[in-house]
Amino acid sequence: MPEPFDPRYDMTEAIAPAGGRGGGGGGGGGVGGGPMDLPASGPQPLKGGPRRGPWRLALPWRGEPGRRSGGPAAPTGRGLWTDAWHDLRRNPVFVASALIIVFLVLIAIWPQLIASGNPYHGDLARAQDGPAPGHPFGYDLQGRDVYTRTVYGARASITVGICATLGAALLGSVLGGLAGYFGGWWDTLLSRIADVFFGIPILLGGLVFLSVVTSGSVWPVVGFIVLLGWPQISRIARGSVVTVKEHDYVQAARVLGASSGRTLLRHIAPNAVAPVIVVATIALGTYISLEATLSFLGVGLKPPTVSWGIDISSAATQIRNAPHMLLWPAGALSITVLAFIMLGDAVRDALDPKLR
Amino acid sequence: MPELMPEPMPEHMPEHMPEPDEPVLEVRDLAKLYPLTQGVVFKRRIGAVRAVDTVSFALRRGETLGIVGESGCGKSTVAKLLVSLERPTAGTIHYRGEDITRLSGRALRAVRRNIQMVFQDPYTSLNPRMTVGDIIGEPFEIHPEAAPKGNRRRAVRDLLDVVGLNPEHINRYPHQFSGGQRQRIGIARGLALRPEIIVADEPVSALDVSVQAQVVNLMETLQDEFDLSYVFIAHDLSVVRHISDRVAVMYLGRFAETGTGREIYDHPTHPYTQALLSAVPDPDPEPRARPTRILLTGDVPSPANPPSGCRFRTRCWKAQERCATEVPVLAVPTGLAGPAAHASACHFAEERAEVRA
Prior knowledge:
heterodimer, A: mainly alpha, 2 domains, 11 helices, globular, disordered N terminus, B: alpha/beta, Rossmann fold, 10 helices, 27% helix
C-alpha cells in the first residue's frame, strides 16, 4: 500500500470512476508503484518530479499550446439548463403533463378544432338532459351542450390561470428576490407593503375592485389576482434568496468580481427558484378556482363569456339533479391544475442535479 | 495536532528565498468595526464589535503567512478584508504600492484578479447547480481578458489537471465529488486568473484528516509552480507550521506575536502563544517530556467590549497594572536574543523553557 499520507496519492480519487485519463497523467500514472495499481485514476505526483515541466506549459494563457490536444474529444460544454432539458425529455411525468398543457393551450386558441357546436346555442327542451348521441357530456340548465361549453371554457380559464400565475410569480419573485438580496430599507418597505396586501380579504377586495373596474374581458380579473397573489410568492422568494445568499459560493463569485446581476442570475436564482416553482404551480390551480369564485359572485367574468368557473358555479346548485353539469367542467379544471403541478414538480426536480 | 503531519512529509523549505524588498501586499493598521444596532427601521448605534483592530503585516512574493488563533479572534474578517469582501473601517491594504481599500468598479476588478480566495467549506463554496467546468470557467467569463474565448474550455481542463483531478470530469456536478476533490475544485477556481496572492481561509479544517495533508501539499506545490503568496488562515497549529514561512498569532482582533515557524513554535515569548501551544495534544502516549499545560481561566472577552491595554490581560498570569493602561506594541522586545527575538506584543515577553509543542 502507498503511505496513507503519501502526498502524491489522492486516495479520494480512487472513488470516482475515471474515464481514462487520456494519457494526461504523463509520467505520473501509477507513480510510486503502489501495489494498488489504478492507472485509470492515476495518482498525481504533486510534488516535484517530471511533471513540473509540462505544468508550466499547460495553461494556454501562457502562450503555449495546450498539451492535451491529442486527448479524447472534449465533451461539449453542458450546463444546468442543458442537463435539465436532457433530463426532462426522458421524464414521463413531464412528457405527459406537457402534452396535456399543449393540448389545453391549443383548444384554448382554437376550440373549434374539437368542438363544432355553438356554446351559446341552447335548447330549453333538453335542459339538464344526460348524454345523447353527438352530445357526450349532456346538456346544461339552458339546454346548451356541456361538451362544447367545456371546450370553449378553456380559453378564459387557461388565460386567467397562466397569466395570473406568470404575473404574480414574476412580480413576486423579482420584488422578493431583490428585497432578499439587497436587504435594507427596500426590504423593510416591501415586506410591509406585502403585509398590507395580505391583510386584504380576497373576496371583499374582489367585490370592491372588480365592481369598480368593469370590462367584459378577463384582464381585470387577471390584474386583481396578480395584485393579491404576488405577496405570497414574494415572501417565498425573499426567504429563499436570503438563505441562498449566505452560501460561500455567492461570496466566491463576489471575490471573483462578479456583478450583482451576474450573482443573482447565475448563482442565486437557480438555487432559490425551486420553492417559487412549487408555490406558483399550486397557486395556478387556486387562481383558476378564484376566478370561478369571483364569477360565481357576479364580479368576475360575466356570463356571455364562457368559462369553467361560470359553469361550475351555475351547476353547483343543480348537483343533485344533473351532476354531469358540474363534473365535466370541474374535471377539466382538475386535470389542468394537476398537469401544471406535475410540470412544476418535474421542472423543479430536473433543476436539482443531486436528484439525477 | 502534530499527528496530522507525519514523517514522510519533508519540512517545508522555500526553494527560492523571496526577495526581501518589495512586499506584494502591505497591510497597515487595518481595523474593522461592525456596528451594533438596535431597531429595525430606525437603527440606533449602540456600540461596535472590534473584529479586527490595528493589524499590520507585509507579505512578500512567494511567501506564506500563516495566521492562527481561536474561533472569533478575527482571522476570517482579515481574510474578507484582504479580498475586498468587506471594507475596512480604518487602515490601508497596499497591493504593489496601491491602496486597494478605496478602489471600486473597474480598478477593484483588476485587483481582484490578483488576490483570490480559497474558502473553508468545500460543501458550500461550490454552486451545486453548476458543473465543475462552469465553476472553474466562471473567472474567465467575469474577466474575459484572462483567457481567449476559444481556449477557455481547455484552460479549465488544464486547471483540473493541475489540481490533480481528472479533466474528463468537467461536466460533473460538485455533489459527485468527495470533500478533498471539492476543495481542489475550489483551489482551481482560485487559481484560474493566475493571481499573485491567494487568501486561504481555513482551507483544510472542513476536510477529513486523511485528505488535509494532500490538499496542503497541493497548495505548496502550486505555490512553487505559480509563484504564489499565501495568507493561510487556520486554527490548526501544526498545519500552519507546516506550510508557513511566517506565522502570526491572533487574539481578539490583534496580532499577539509574529515570527518564523521556528520562532513561534519553539521559542514563543507571548503568554497567549505559550498557552495555545501547550494545549496542543501530544500524540506520544509516554508522558515523560510532557510540558506543563497552561490552563487559561475564563472565556475570550467580548470583542464588543474588549479589555483596556493588553487584550489578553484578563486571562494572563503575568498581568500587572501596566497591562491595563498601556497597549503593548507588536515589536521585538528588548533583552531577548536568538530565535526568541521576534515581534511580540507583550510587556513581559520572555521564553518559557518548558513550553514545547
